[in-house]
Amino acid sequence: MRATFRLGRILGVRVGVHWSVAVIFGVIAIGLARSRLPDAHPGHSTEAYWTVGLLTAAVFFGCLLAHELAHAVVARRNGVDVDDIVLWLLGGVARLRGEAATPGAELRIAGVGPLVSLLLGGVFALGAWTADTASGAGLAVDALVWLAVINVALAVFNAIPAAPLDGGRLLRALLWWRTGDRLRATTGAATAGRAFGWLLVALGLFLFIRGTTFSGLWLAAIGWFLVAAATMEARQAEVRATLGQIPVRNAMTREPVTVPDSATVAEFLLGDAYRYRHSAYPVTDQAGAPLGLLTLHAAQHVPEYRRGAVTVGAVMLPLAQVAVVGPDEPLRDLLPRLEPGPEHRVLVIDEGRLLGVLSGSDVTRMVTWLTTTDPRRRGS
Predict the structure, then answer these.
(1) Integer Cα distance of 145 and 150 in angstroms
(2) Fewer CB near the last or first residue (10 Å), C or N of the chain?
(3) Does residue 351 have an active-site annotation?
(4) List 47, 68, 233, 238, catalytic entry
(5) Phi and psi at residue 159, in whole multiples of 5°?
(6) Cβ atoms within 10 Å, residue 87
């Protein structure tokens, strides 16, 4: 899940928002402003309902961000680097660069999220009680009650022992501690996640048939997402076990074709060195130092009449927005950062020098080679 736009850094962690957040933000704001608040407290102006509804929806996403930031902070304290946090349609996700080294670390990283949501629920409940005692029931009190209930519900839902929920991570930590086998633990948590996901799909379809259209479809969508995410998590665990401690340098494409940042887009598109080869190219300066990544799509997006004047450096993805790894980093730790699409190529850099490029297809070839030449590595 890639962010549509960035909010910056909070506590040293990059935070972004996916466009789908607008959907759930609108659903919450409309539901509060046009239904819950007018029904509970009639007689207020439309502007008052909408103001409280919009503010409540914004605070709710702040709570989701706090939940994910808690995961990120505890992960870093337990030696796991964090790529970023992305808020999206079904909540938020903190993308970790690797895995916890011990079951105890896994337990701490997974458990802190629901704990923060539960704590926030208590804070909002206390705030609602205080406001109600001081001034009586009103829009603000109702909004605080809603935030208290939704945070407690978020904590309870995330604590369900099914991957990829936090409870699934807790289950994996327990199974890992009992069996000593991280792959078996991940498989067990993923199986529970798929079972729970299909249960939600079935319940959602039942509600849809009974006439509860929106709730049924929403529940089925969440269930389908859980099934897909749990399946992907199990597959990634198998791939990680197959790759073992193989370094990135063993799978990367060495000595990739590069584009100078001073070249024009026309020179790039018409140059024989680039034609028919790849969909993305590393961009370098005159000394050969890597500066970013240029995709064929970005170059073709430049209007034809401007291609002779616009340089590659002006349309490339800067290095700060490109995944960068060292050649000796374990290949398996890179899996969470690999996504389809040429803009997600990984540059392999050592001491300022570009050594190679890595894509999902490179990892697939390595896994295929390992499982073909040594089938025992399937479960290692």
Answers:
(1) 9
(2) C
(3) no
(4) 68
(5) -85, -5
(6) 24
